[in-house]
Structures are given as structure tokens and as C-alpha cells.
Write a structure and sequence with these properties.
376 residues; alpha+beta; 5-stranded antiparallel β-sheet
Length: 376
């Protein structure tokens, strides 16, 4: 009886997923645990540069932001901020010489160049301006364009459906998905983007290695797939899927723009959709959390399948050098968590630092295991 119970407990834990996630960047991988934030980048000379920092986010100060549905909105904003900082940092490291030459040609001094470079490597007002611009671009491409195209199709096809019908939002969602898939497919032909997709695969393999309880080595990571259920690509699929369902239900209940001129009616509808972006993000994040905890259930496999197909576009098989970078990143966050006991920190106690390493073996191993980072 005890053995059966123990087996069930082991099986339950083995299906859990760590609250550690990452992002591929230029020639590197960003990794974030609940309390640490690391960017690992391959330098032009072949060495590894680690940017290490404590993560002390808004939810550490405002506990209510950790509640279901609210946490998804926070994660979306924080992920965008982290992504911009990480991309700027990786670009500065991987393309430092090229960027410096360009800056000097434009009349900047070396001191001005270094100051500008460093300012982009931290969350600042400029970061949030970048987020705002990215958000507006996303709204334009994935809300305004599909909605306007659907309205034109409705008008010129002689269709009888309108904003209150599910057909309108089904067509809108189909156009949105087509734009997204076309965008991913087109950028996949860019050599630098293909490399980022390889680092994306390396990031997934390194996290899967940790979640499987195996030693963080290249040989162990190599055998895992590039797919991971908690990937941002899957999150985007959920954003699109949830938006179709939610829009079809809400617009059927709330007659947005009724009795208004056609253009104004659709403008009100677009603004209403923008307002619903954050609730949609909250719901989508909870679906990702469900997948993390139930990847092998029938419903979990059903939910993860579209994301798995999408990840065939956004992840590529990495080489050993790229796996080394991803593993360096996750080893570093584990090391920081343990060395500084960041879980118990009531404030930001360490500051950002940078170190250069020759190999993965130069990073000290942590005693932390999956059980220390289970998703809540």
C-alpha cells in the first residue's frame, strides 16, 4: 500500500512543471526563475557572457497580483519588459564591435556609446515606451487589420452576419491566425531569426532536462524535444483562440455600436476588443498553467496540440554550442536562487553583475531540484 502511494506521489511530481521560463535572444538565452534573472550570450570570441540579477517584480510587493487571471496580465507586461532588456543586452554583446563602429561614424564618442548601450540594458521609461509601441503595432496588425478585413468581406460578399454573430468573429480569428502564421513563416527565412529559433529549441530542452530531474549537461539536454507546453508560442495560440470565443459571446450579449454609423460602430468594436486584451491574457495564462500541470491528460494533450504544431515553426534543433548557452542560463538562475536564498528575500538584495566563462563547467552546480520550483 505504501509503495503504491509513493509511486503515485512520484508520478504526480514528475508531471509538474517548474516556475522557470525563458526566451531566446540574439546568440543567447534569457532565463527567469521566481527570484532570479539571467541572460547568457555567446560572445564573438566563443566565451559565455552571463548577466545575472535578482528578479524582484511587482507581485513581490503587491501579493494580490499573484491571483489567478490577474497574474496572466502581469506576466504579459513583465515578459515584454524582460524581453526588450534581454534582446538589447544580447545585441550589445553579440554585435558590440559593429554597433560601436556605427555609433562612432555618427559622431558619438566611446563614452557616449557605452552610456547609451548600458541605458538599454535595464528596465526604464524607454523600455515601457518600447512596450507601448510594440503593443500598438500588435493591436494594429492583429486587431485592426483582421477586423477591418472581416468588415469588408461582410460588406462585399453579401453576407448577412454582423458584429453580434459568431460568424463575424470566426472569420476575424481566421484572418488573425493567417497573418500570424504568414509572419512567422516569412521571418523564418532570415538567417539570424533561424538562429534565434535554434536557441528557442535549446531553451526548451534545457528546461525539460531540469524538469526531468537530470543533470544539466549537453548530453542529457540533447535527447529532449524542442517542444514545451508552456511556450510563448502556445500562449499566442491561446490568445487567438480565447479571443474568438470571448468576442463571439460578449458581442452577442453587448450590442456594441448599435444605431451608430458603420465606421463608428466598427471603431467602437475595435476599442472594445483592445480593452478585452488583458482579460484574454489572464485566461490564456491560466490555460498555460493547466497545461504545465496536466501535460499527459487527454484534455491537456488536446489543448497542447495546436501549440505543438506552431512550435514546429518557432523552434529548431540546436547545436551543442547553443545548448551550452541555454544550460548556462538555467544553471546560473539556480545558483543565484540558492547562494543568496532569494526565496526568503523581502527586498532586492543583490545588484546586476556580469561574468565571462569559458565553459558550462565553470558555473557552480545548485542543490535545488524540481520540487523547489513547482508551479503554483
Amino acid at each position: 500500500m505504501k509503495k503504491a502511494l509513493l509511486k503515485k506521489l512520484v508520478l504526480l511530481v514528475s508531471k509538474q512543471y517548474a516556475s522557470i521560463g525563458g526566451q531566446a535572444v540574439i546568440e543567447g538565452v534569457m532565463m527567469r526563475s521566481p527570484n532570479a534573472f539571467v541572460v547568457a550570450v555567446r560572445k564573438p570570441d566563443g566565451s559565455i557572457r552571463l548577466r545575472r540579477d535578482q528578479w524582484y517584480g511587482l507581485s513581490n510587493k503587491l501579493a494580490f497580483l499573484k491571483k489567478p487571471f490577474l497574474r496572466g496580465v502581469l506576466v504579459l507586461v513583465e515578459t515584454m519588459a524582460n524581453g526588450i532588456v534581454s534582446l538589447n543586452y544580447s545585441a550589445n554583446i553579440a554585435m558590440d564591435e559593429e554597433n560601436k563602429k556605427e555609433a562612432l561614424k555618427k559622431g558619438q564618442t566611446e563614452e557616449e556609446y557605452e552610456k547609451t548601450k548600458k541605458s538599454k540594458e535595464k528596465v526604464s521609461l524607454e523600455t515601457f515606451l518600447s512596450i507601448a509601441v510594440s503593443f500598438l503595432f500588435g493591436i494594429g496588425l492583429f486587431v485592426f487589420v483582421p477586423h477591418a478585413a472581416t468588415a469588408l468581406i461582410e460588406k462585399y460578399s453579401g453576407a448577412t452576419w454582423d458584429l453580434q454573430s459568431w460568424q463575424f468573429h470566426a472569420v476575424d480569428g481566421t484572418i488573425k491566425a493567417f497573418i500570424f502564421l504568414t509572419y512567422i513563416w516569412l521571418i523564418s527565412f532570415i538567417p539570424d531569426i533561424k538562429k534565434v529559433f535554434q536557441y528557442h529549441g535549446a531553451e526548451h530542452k534545457s528546461i525539460s532536462t531540469f524538469e526531468a530531474g537530470e543533470e544539466l549537461t549537453i548530453a542529457n539536454a540533447r535527447k529532449f524535444p524542442t517542444f514545451h507546453p508552456r511556450c510563448g508560442t502556445t500562449f499566442i495560440f491561446f490568445l487567438m483562440f480565447v479571443s474568438i470565443i470571448l468576442f463571439a459571446i460578449i458581442f452577442a450579449i453587448i450590442p456594441v455600436g448599435t444605431n451608430s454609423p458603420v465606421i463608428l460602430k466598427h471603431l467602437y468594436a475595435i476599442l472594445f476588443k483592445v480593452a478585452l486584451t488583458f482579460p484574454i491574457a489572464g485566461i490564456s495564462y491560466e490555460l498555460i498553467k493547466f497545461l504545465g500541470k496536466n501535460p499527459d491528460s487527454a484534455f491537456g494533450r488536446f489543448l497542447s496540440y495546436p501549440g505543438k504544431m506552431l512550435q514546429k515553426l518557432t523552434t529548431k534543433e540546436p547545436d551543442d554550442q547553443q545548448l551550452e548557452i541555454a544550460l548556462a542560463s538555467i544553471k546560473a538562475v539556480l545558483f543565484l536562487e540558492e547562494k543568496y536564498n532569494l526565496k526568503e528575500a523581502s527586498s532586492k538584495t543583490i545588484t546586476v553583475d556580469e561574468i565571462d566563462l569559458r565553459t558550462l563547467a565553470d558555473i557552480e552546480n545548485s542543490n535545488f531540484k524540481l520540487k523547489d520550483f513547482l508551479e503554483g
